[in-house]
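Review form for a predicted model. The reviewer records the input and the model, then writes brief findings.
Reviewer: anonymous (R2)
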Amino acid sequence: MATAKTLRTQVGIVGAGPAGLLLSHLLHLEGIESIVIETGSRQHVEERIRAGVLEQGTVDLLNGAGVGDRMRREGLVHLGIELRFNRRGHRIDLHGLTGGRAITVYAQHEVLKDLISRAPRSRRADLLRR
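Model under review:
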């Protein structure tokens, strides 16, 4: 019979989704220990297809937290959309209408991979362990 291992940490986070992993990363940047508890495997978390549109505030937060390098290289920035009706296209300049904001197409599972890869080596092995 396996014995329970005692683990001490300052913050416990339930769920290794984008919010949980980003919170863990932001706490680490502030010197606060945390552990992420997830029922799924690391492979499941990294490969599960999720939505892929990030709003400007999220993009800014990921860049500010130092995990936006790959997103900036591989993400697709959309500055506007085109609606079609009556067989004519009508461009909506979201970038111009919002003072320079945009949306970025970058899958959430890619954000998760970026966050996991930036976890300190000492915590990476524990991150997402079943």
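Findings: The chain has a mean pLDDT of 86.
Further findings: The first strand starts at residue 11 and ends at 14.
Recommendation: see findings above.
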